[in-house]
Each structure stands twice: as C-alpha cells, then as structure tokens.
Amino acid sequence: MPVQVGDYSWQQTEAAVFLSLPLRGVSVRDADVFCAENYLKVNFPPFLFEVFLYAPIDDASSKAKIGNDTVIFTLYKKEVAMWEMLSMPGVDKETKQKIREKSILQAQQTAQEADEAKAKARREDQKYALTVMMKIEEDERKKIEDMKENERRKATKELEVWRECQKKDKEQKPIPREEKLQQGKQAKEARKQLKHKTVAGNSTVSHHATKGRNSEDIFAEALQEASIPAPRSVGSIKINFTPRVFPTALRESQVAEEEEWLHKQAEARRAMNTDIPEFCDLKEEEKNPDWLKEKGNKLFATENYLAAINAYNLAIRLNNKIPLLYLNRAACHLKLKNLHKAIEDSSKALELLTPPVKDNANARMKAHVRRGTAFCQLELYVEGLQDYEAALKIDPANEIVQHDAEKIRSIIQGTEVNSCD
Fold first, then answer.
1. Does the N terminus or the C terminus of the chain have fewer Cβ atoms within 10 A?
2. Model-level pTM greater than 0.90?
C-alpha cells in the first residue's frame, strides 16, 4: 500500500494556484506526475499524493517544476475566481474512482489527438518534400531534354551543311569530265586529219605506200603515249633505329652480358609468341614492347588512332605490366569516342601505377584526367569531377585542369549546359 502524503503548501490568485510538494529522499527520475482537469497525482514510491481539485484547471498550460527535493506546480484556472479550498469537499470513494477514470480517458484522448496531429503534420511535411523533389527532378529532366534538343539541332545543322557540300561537289565534278571529253574529241579530229594526209600521199606516190602506213602508226602511237601519264619515280627509304643503351657507367659496363641479356629476352618473347599470327611477319626488333610503344606514339601523332591502338595491343600482349601502354591506348580510345574502353584503360593504368611516387605522378595525373574526360562525355559529371580533383591533388598548379574542373562544377550546379570538351 502506498503512503499518502499530506505535507504540502499552496497559494492562489484569481487566475492560478501554486502548489509545493516536498520529495525528501526520492530521486527525480522516479517521480511520476499526472495532471488532468479535475485531478492531480504525484507517485514517487512508496509515497503517493493525489488531490481532487476544487474547480477545473487548464491542464495543457499548467506546469510542474522538479528540483531541490520539491515539486512546484503552477495550475492555471479555467475560470477566474478565488477557491475556498484546494480539493473538493465530501468526495466519497466511488466519486473519486469516477474522477480518476474520467481523467485517464481524457488524457488518453488528448494524447491520441496530439499523435494524430503530429502524424498529419509529418505527412504534410513529407508531401511538401516530395513535391519539391518532383519539381527539382522535373527541372533537371527538362534541362537534359533541352541539352539533347540543342545537340540534335546542332547535329542536324551540321548534316545539312555536309549535304550541301556534297551537292556542290557533285555539281562541280562533271565540269572536268566535259573538258576531258572535249580534249578526246580534239585528239580524234587530229588523228583524222593526219590519216587524211597520209592517204593523200599514198595515192600520189605508190612506191611509198608502206612507208606511209608506218608513219600513220607512228603518229597514232605518239598520240597514245601523250595521253598516258609518266610513271612515278622509284625510290627506297632507309629506316634506322636507335640501339638500346644500358645506363651503366663505362668503367662498370659489361657489354657482353648486356648483349646476352638482350638475346635471351628476344628468345623468350619468340618462344612465348610463336603461335600468335600477328608476330609471324614482324622483324626481331619489332617484337619489342618498347619499340611498339614508340611506334604507337608516332601513329597517334599523325592522328592514325586505329593503327596506334593495334600497336599498343601487340605491345600489351607481349608485356601487360607496362602502365604507359594502357594510358596511351586510353588516349586513342578517347579520340575515337570509345569512352567505356578509355575508362577501362585509364583504370588499369592507375592500378599499375602503384605505389604513388614522384616519378609516376605525371602519368597518374594524365590517367585521372583522361578517365574524368570520358566520364564527362558520358554525362557522368560527378564521377568526372572526382577524377579531376584527384588530378589536382597530384598537380595543384595545373591551370588547364583547374579550368576544366571549374567548368564541370558549373555544369553540376546547373549554371552551364555545355558538355565537357
């Protein structure tokens, strides 16, 4: 059985009641306070305090402050008046039980209404957030559609210009053909005149008939030779390759061992690749990955990207641990718009360029830039920006990379709609 507490003090004004209840030796966490319109209860085991108020109060605005082993209540009256006493006089057990049950039901109903109001407010907030997100997505979709429409118009305009150029070329081509026909007619007329003169000479001097026919053949051959262009001059080009030199000091050089090492390397490559058809027609020095890399670089410089890729492919089949082969092949794929292959080769180059040291910093920066460019051309601007920022960490003073990174940020923020270069 709980111990009823009767030690309390209270004061009042016309609008409020101030009640002070001591909590000696009881933890604040253990105190359970319940306040209703006509009922007030404080349960702090083993003690219990309850009062059936003289008049109704506004339980929503009333307050309770716990501290210094005391609970101080500020109860605001619903009607402005002075109470004769704090609790209702002459309340029997049955009435008290009804007041308790009514107070609990009112408290449950109030809590349910508060929960429903919170849930409604939460739903309204979610609905508003969903509306805002849908509007943002609609704006992004519209922006992308506008970009695609602009690209389509640009491509259509370029196609029309190309068609006009083709049409003009076709109109201009028959002109030299007509000139050739005219020249052919003139040559035929010249042959007829020569033939007519030869026949006239034969009728006057009969014993020169054979000679006249021979002269006719000579003139005809001369005309045919004049219409055929002269053959091209024949020549040969000699190519010399720089021999591989080991960076060894002269006093420590061992030329014989180095030559033997080169010979063994060539034999090993030949033994590994005897079944590859591409290597059957290659010379010995052409089966060197370094030679193939240099060949690919020269082809790239002449904008022959497909041939450069073939050179890098052969070099990778010989040695797939050289990161520069993948890095250079990624540049070729980027030029040919093979964007996914460019991303794969750049990633493979970064994988081989480990650990990150000063000597491979430039190659790592290029790999990040090329992979970032491929991502941007695929309209994956966030991934592209990450690669550009990684390149800037390696070379913060590179103004070109800084400018491109700013441009990508502008595209992501929606202030620019142009694609990456």
1. N
2. no
